[in-house]
Amino acid sequence: MSCTLLSSAYLLDRFGDSPLFTSQLLSQDLWALENGCWQDLPRWMTTSFGCSYACVGPFGGVITKGQRGVLSRSLPAPPPGYIKINFDGATFRKGRELGVGMFARGNAGECLAWILKKLYILGDGEMAEELAARNAVLLAIRKEWPLVIFEGDCDVVISKILSPKSDISVIGPKVIDIRLFISGFHSCSFQFVSRAWNVVAHTLAQSTTGSLEGDSVFPPAVAPYVIADLSS
């Protein structure tokens, strides 16, 4: 099965008059994309993959770069019963403010929850990423999701969470918190993904708005990226 990736222009043309975009409106498109392959990429992704490129994507799927603007991939959806949460962190005002973003979805590609938070504390990019991971875990606990896959684009933080060694860095105590929290899940994993596969969480984290959260209704600012991210 193959299908065309819906571009941001198409989304804005189809739903641009609506103040909010809902995952239900796009559920059929998402399901098709989840099981299909890309034939046409939006401009932001074409730019990202403008050179020869190959990497291991989410859940071990191999992403290979062919001719410009075309990718082939094998990216299975989360297993039935699992929730996938992407997270990302950002810094503002030279580290005087931090932002975190999280985006959760189910096996059918539906949006289950999203959060963006502005934290008025000092910190660097690594601390922002760690706080994003911690908040993603707390989201899963609050929602009582027992089977969760967490994805982020900071391999340093993910490696620290997965490492059996003690972490004596500044974020060490928070890493210990995360390890304790995830021990309560029936099944849980942390996986590194590239920024291209984490664009919705990244966009939420970069938002200059205060702190917001929702479930099946997501902010228009991330709508152009949601289709591409949900199809990964």
Structure description:
The protein is α+β, with helices and mostly antiparallel strands. It has two domains: 8-15 and 23-72, no CATH class; 83-230, Ribonuclease H-like superfamily/Ribonuclease H (Nucleotidyltransferase, domain 5). 32% of the residues lie in helices and 24% in strands. It is built from eight helices and eleven strands. It has helices at residues 8-15, 27-34, 43-48, 125-143, 155-162, 172-182, 199-205, 223-230, and strands spanning 21-22, 54-56, 62-65, 71-72, 83-92, 97-105, 111-119, 147-152, 187-192, 212-214, 217-218. The strands form three sheets. A six-stranded mixed β-sheet has the order 9-8-5-6-7-10. Strands 2-3-4 form a three-stranded antiparallel β-sheet, with no helix packed on it. A hairpin with a 5-residue loop joins strand 2 (54-56) and strand 3 (62-65). The protein is globular. The model is unreliable at 1-76 (pLDDT under 50).
